[in-house]
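Below sits the subject:
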Amino acid sequence: MALEGRKINFAAGPAKLPEEVLLKMQEEQLNFNNLGVSVIEMSHRSKEFGVLLNETISLIRELMNVPDNFEILFMQGGGTGQFAAIPLNLKGSHDHADYIVTGAWSSKAADEAQKYIKVKKVFQPSKPYVTVPDQEKWVHDEKAAYLYYCANETVHGIEFTPTAPESHNVPLVADVSSNFMARPFDFKDHGVVFGGAQKNLGAAGLTIVIVRKDLIGKEQGITPSVFSYKEMIANNSLYNTPPTGGIYTTNLVLKWIKAKGGLQAIYELNLKKSGLIYGIIDNSNGFYHCAVDKRYRSIMNVCFRIGGPSGNDELEEKFLKGAIERNMISLKGHRSVGGIRASLYNAITLEETQVLATWMNEFEKQHNTN
């Protein structure tokens, strides 16, 4: 479906929503379920909102095959809030936690966690972030409270594929903010799986946290109640007013994912989209350059330079200008790394990806003198 006047939005987040979802939101904006009010006007403690909340939880459990020994929470503060909430909730009697730093977001998570627990990095991170060091070289500690990793680094385009890191007998904590429901997920060895909804699952403001039950109740005494997993579970995520509009939006996105065939179908489409763009990069004789180790290339965030490994500012500006003229927006790379970044989240269609591919081929033909 293509709505007139809409841009092809390759933003890293807040990101594109499926147009079917936006149309449903528009239809129900003034009168949700014939109740005579918008969903964002409803009391979060009403029976009607309770039905919506519990249905959304059930859809997450169904689509991700969340095991019964995990609770699903709706929280606020974004993924960044969980950088603090995780050590606050999981420290228990442990002295430290292990962190895998593979990019900007895992680095920020480790920095924040140091306020609440001693942090040990399983390897010394090195910039630029382009790969994940071999796990045989990691220094693990089985006495750690948990082992933290970012499943997909949005800024640098690095993704753990196809499996999670080895846990070494401690709970894995996964930040899945930018590949949430982009592929099937294996909860084996995981203790906490969390992510903001604004990339693949809805609107900014909602954070989904999936917590293994045996880890609940270990929070530090200084843990704010709004960040306490125990408190949130006891109140079915209604300790305070939740982001009701965000939960509603995610509910619609989950139904859209289910209608598309679930996570396996979504994953296969994401492989096609990313494969199309990476194929152009790899066959450009160096005109397009992706520095990320092919084993860890993100299928969500394709990061590349134009005109060589360091990029050519003039060419990249021309490329971005031409993309805008062709109805494509938000392709500029993160300010910390530059270049181009195409975020191919679930709502981006294969047809929209093909528009980008066509422009890349055209631009290379115009400017590649190698």
